[in-house]
Amino acid sequence: MASPILLLDAFSLLYRAFYALPPLTTKAGEPTSALYGLSVLLLKLLREQRPKGAAFALDLPRPTFRHERYAGYKGTRTKPPSALGRQVGRLRELIDAFGFPAFAAPGFEADDVLATLATELAAAGEAPVVVSGDRDTLQLADGAVAVLYVGRGVKEARYDASAVEARFGVPPALLPEYVALIGDPSDDLPGVPGVGKQTAAQLVMRHGTVTSILEHLGEIANARLHEALRAHADRLPLWADLARLRTEVPLPSGPRFAPVTQEARARVAELFERLEFTSLIGRLEGAFPGAS
Predict the structure, then answer these.
(1) Whole-prediction pTM value?
(2) Rounded to whole angstroms, how far apart are CA atoms 217 and 226?
């Protein structure tokens, strides 16, 4: 089996770590819990996955094409707590220490960047593993691409296409259609009231897309379901399209990942010293064995 290439959803993983751990600070009072939790996860991934290399995807602090197309997109999200916001400034320092490239693109989300990187690497014969706490990335778990979903408590679950279908009742490529029907509170996509997960999966598996579902409304005998779908017919295709990740994000030319190196190990050790992560320094050897 080919060594994987880890594609890491930087902000998603940082947020997961922040909410999974109690507050931590340096002696000078700088908050570090999210950085600490992310560092623990990164060392664990390097130790257990033995990757060929890795790359990060970042969100930019500006609206995306989804906000432009739907004013309500992520409309109820609030600013992160100040203790988390202060650590975001250190995130790039942590990424640079590990030596992996970080990609972002105006108008797109980190998930789209991950989708593009995964598609390119899979086409080149690599084995990408997307690591994220965002369920939207599960639509990428197909073919050579696997998704390591990091849930609450920073617990990981690995998904391929069969695992996605076993959980949701639809294959990865049809998850956007499924999400359009049931909604996604994290992105403020409302879905269709009264349409539950089982009904949504059945509709998608029978018709394939929400457009096809709407074209076959006459076949739906349940009057309440028929009316609910009809009432949202003008918005369902939009919601499905917003939920669908883009795989052709314009990214700068150059390598799509970087290998694990001993130079990176030295930089990480130095950063851990400054952040007072002394308990993690002993774990570096297991995370960087035989690095070139």
Answers:
(1) 0.95
(2) 6
